[in-house]
Amino acid sequence: MYESQLHVGGLDPRTFPPERWWQIVAPLLTKERGFNVQDIGRSAEGRPLRHVSWGNGPKQVLLWSQMHGDESTATMALADLFRLLGEHPDHPLIARLRQETTLHILPIVNPDGAARFQRQNAQGIDLNRDARALASPEAQALKRLYDQVQPQYGFNLHDQRPGYRAGDSDQATAIALLSPPFDDSRDVNDVRRRAMEVAVSIRAMLAPELAGRIARWDDTFSPRSFGDLTTQWGTSTVLIEAGGIEGDPQKQRLRRHYFMGLLAALDAIATGNHAGLDIGHYFDLPQNGEVWPDLLIFGGTVVSSGLPPVRADVLIDFKQPLSEEGGRVKEIGDLGGIPVRRRIDATGLFIQPLPCSAHDDPSAITPNAPACLQLSRDAEGREVVWTLLRDVDPRHADPAKR
Asked: What is the pTM (predicted TM-score) of this model?
C-alpha cells in the first residue's frame, strides 16, 4: 500500500520548513478522520507547537519528532502514518490501534531549528539536552504534554549522521535503536524491558531489508536528555535514529523503513505481542561504531599560491552527507588507509583552491575552511575536470573522464 496509498507527497527535499509540512499534513488531520489537533505552546520565535491525538484505547503512547531541526525523517514518516490512520479506518491494523491505543504526537518540536535546518533552536539550545533545566519554551511544552498524557510508551524520533557504521563492519547504519537507561547503573527494570521488547519488534520488521544495517545506540545515561528522563519517570521509551542509505540523499527510502518500523512498534503495543520477546535480540544488535568521514580526494598534488606543490590527500565532511552539501575541509596530508564513505582518485591531477564567493581571494586549501576547490590536469588550472563549491553537483559527482 505504501507508494500508492500512504506516501504523502511534497516532502522532498527533506529540508522543508515547518509551515510547509503543516500545510501539507493539516488537511489529513480532520475530526471526521478521528484526529484532534490542539496548539499547546509557541516556539522561541512564536511558531505553533501542536499536539495531535488519535485513538480511543487505554494504552497511552507519546511520540515526538524533530527536536533537532535538521532531523526530519521521522516527521516525514509521521505524515505517512497520519494518512494511514485517517484514510484506512477499516483496516484491521488501524482498528486494533484505535481500540487499544491513544496516540499523542508532537511533530516538529523544534520548528525554529527546522526553519533553518539546524540542530539547535533559535536560542541556540539543544532541546534534547534541555529535559532537566526546561529552559526553552519548546522543552517546556513537551514536558507539559508528557505530564498531561502520562504515557506508558514513548518514542523519541531522531536522525543520526550517515557516517556511523554498524558495529565494526563497513555497513552504514540505516536505523539505530535504543532503550534509554534510567540511571548510571544501566539496569534493566520492567520499564526498560518493555522498551527493549518493542525495539525487538522493530528489528523483526526491518531486518529482511536492512540486515546488517540496524544498530544499537550507546546507553550511557544522560541526565539532561528526554529519552533517559522519560524512562526514569516510568515510560517505556524507544529512541529511533535514521542514519543513511547510500544513493538515498533525501532519505525517502529510509523514510519508508522508518514508517514500517513505527507501525510494527505500535501494533506490538496494541496487541501486547511484544511481551515476552527475547531481549537478547536487542542486545545482540551491533553498537553504532566508528563514524566514517564523507569524501577523500586522494593521490593529487595540492597547489597553493606562493608555496611549493605538495602531494597530499584532502578529506572533506559535509553538513548534509547523503546529498554532499555544505562541505568543509577536515584534513590534508597522507590519508591513505582511512575508511571513508566515498573516494575520488586524483592521481596525476592538481588540487587547487577556488573562491567560495565573489569577495574571496583564496590562496590555499586549509583545514576547517569551506571546501571550495577544483581538480585540473595542469598546475595552472586551465584543464579543469571537477569543481567543488561546498556542494557536490549531483550531475557531476565525479571528475570528468581523462
From this structure: 0.95
